[in-house]
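Before the break, one more example. Copy the sequence into your notebook; we will annotate it together after we see the structure.
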Amino acid sequence: MTNGMIKNPVLKGFNPDPCIVRVEDTYYIVVSSFEWLPGLRVYESKDLANWAHRCDILTNQVDLRGNPRNCSIWAPQLSYHDNLFYLVYTDVKSTKRPFKDVHNFLIVAESIDGPWSEPVYLNSSGFDPSLFHDDDGRKWLLNALWDYRILEGNKSSGIVMQEYDAKQQRLIGEPVKIFDCTPLKKTEAPHIYKQNGYYYLITAEGGTGTGHAVTVARSKQLLGAYEVDPQNPMLTSRDHPELPLQCAGHGSLVQTPGGEWYMAHLCTRPIEGKYAILGRETALQQVYWNEEGWLRLTAGGNSPQLETPAPAGTSVSTLQSQIQFEDHFAGPKLNKTWNTLRILEDESWCSFTARPGYLRLMAGESIQSLFQHHIIAIRQTDTCFRAETSLEYDPTSYLQMAGLLLYLNDENYLYAYASHEEGQGKVLRMMRNEEDAFSLVPETTALPHADAGPIHLAVEVNETKAQFYYHLGDDAAWQPLYDEQNISFLSGGFTGNFVGIAAHDMQQYKGSYADFARFCYQGK
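Here is what the structure looks like once it is written out:
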């Protein structure tokens, strides 16, 4: 059988910091979720080319209310040992310099689907924890070390390691710094793999932007000293801004049953070469160990490729499927594709029973709330797409609103919504927040009374341009809602753009509600 080619990225849209592991014949990738819940999305594959969303792990173990943007759940590491899945992750509460308030936790489960144990607190000295299971049965926690005393430049000063006692469920002994930064600096995301008599330390360096890279070092002894690959970095896009895959870094390794090796790593696909609206995605590269015992890309060099060979004997379709998601809100719970922001879905604000056949969103706090933002959203996975929804809503104040939005974070969003204006009654409006500069489209679009039926809203995105539409009857034609909008500002930070529906009420918390009948997303 002829090998096919794996098309990158294998996980499109906001899917950063991948950690890959194989258990028997199944591969798993877990990715960071930041402020979106449920946290730590897990994808599975049998062939490394075709991936499906399997589950989400953090379903009740975290409280993210009040966490600032770009904080919360960072860099999970998944491992399998002693017939158990082990998962370590960071909950970031603040990144206000010169400090970082980061707390590392461990949970375990017999199945990837759970139930997962209650979190065991580990430490707070830095982020990106990783658990290494040595051949002698001992377990070791690694994490990036944050040093606030460094006043200028890089504060990620290297990698620290400490033994973990599984019986006592705590760290024991003293932490040992095993690795200092290379000249690339900003060392993080450590993983250790044992191969051919060496302990290999794989880290991310160079920051998470265009300078991102994978650094590899090795030692005969677990605690070092570690020798850096003489051709470091092993993987990067930093010297090739023309590459379609940028920001390559944060790698982890897996070996196939046939002995082949692959690296999962994050990347971006900047639109117009500048705007990573889809966020940081996950790609795969086939790698091998050369005669000197260093890790190399099968493709040669150190640049990420849009295609990489599939494992021997694997036939991969060359067809690129368009991503489609449609939900008619049949319940009894949200489809697992949806995410919520800092709080989990529950019947008090996200109900399928209040009006069967509809999703009722009780209006929460403002669109910029870090506590009770009543939004459900999905990842933007395509540079071009169309999303549609229909809702019934009867606001009585300009402080009440519900509709369809493009949302990066509380500083960057575009929102088409139904509201109420004095002297006009029910209207459609649009608000825009670009890098925390708020604006309103001055015109309003008058709407009939609520009894006239549902409001249909749509948005069509073509790279950096977005056009919203509306209509008010099942057979009515779609009408443009205001002018085309430039959405290049919905990029940057640690997450990617989301497409969602929401309801907000600043007059009275849960004082109004919107009933949604349908949502559809179609990639182009």
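Residues 392 and 484 are 25 Å apart (CA to CA). The chain has two domains: 5-309, 324-523. Try to locate both features in your own notes.
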